[in-house]
Design brief:
Layout: E1 2-3, E2 24-25, E3 48-49, H1 60-76, E4 86-87, H2 111-114, H3 128-131
Parallel strand pairs: 1-2, 1-4
Antiparallel strand pairs: 2-3
């Protein structure tokens, strides 16, 4: 799990308590919010990484993507399936923000307010009908 986590900052709600074996995140819903480290910053700040609190000399998004890329390289070399949950720390809101034509905006109960992009790649490139028993002939 790399990035923003809005589902809790205390045991048993942190991502590391929910089955993620590699975690790189800040506290709370954003940098400098109450559960985060005191006086933290988006640039040259600190984050939580597998129980440690390392200092980062770059922008937060770069920390999360570098952590994710390293995890992919390390795990991909083992040729075993893996799952990554990542969110950037985007704060854009309003009608001018691209939301794929969905109703609502950040924070709303509509699709445009809470949907997260999801990418999936099947290693052997099987057709969807092969993976979904309901669609098999």
């Amino acid at each position: 799990m790399f990035g923003k986590w809005h589902l809790g900052d205390n045991d048993p709600y942190r991502p590391e308590d929910r089955g993620f074996t590699e975690v790189y995140r800040h506290g709370g819903g954003g940098v400098c919010q109450t559960p985060d480290l005191w006086d933290n910053a988006y640039f040259d700040g600190h984050s939580f990484h597998n129980g440690e609190i390392p200092e980062a000399k770059v922008f937060y998004t770069d920390v999360f993507f570098e952590g994710g890329n390293n995890f992919i390289k390390k795990t991909g070399a083992k040729k075993k399936p893996f799952f990554i949950f990542t969110t950037d720390n985007g704060i854009a809101t309003g009608a001018s923000v691209f939301n794929a034509g969905m109703r609502g905006q950040k924070g709303s109960e509509y699709d445009g307010g809470h949907r997260v992009p999801f990418f999936h790649r099947q290693a052997n490139d099987r057709e969807i009908s092969q993976m979904n028993p309901a669609k098999r002939e």
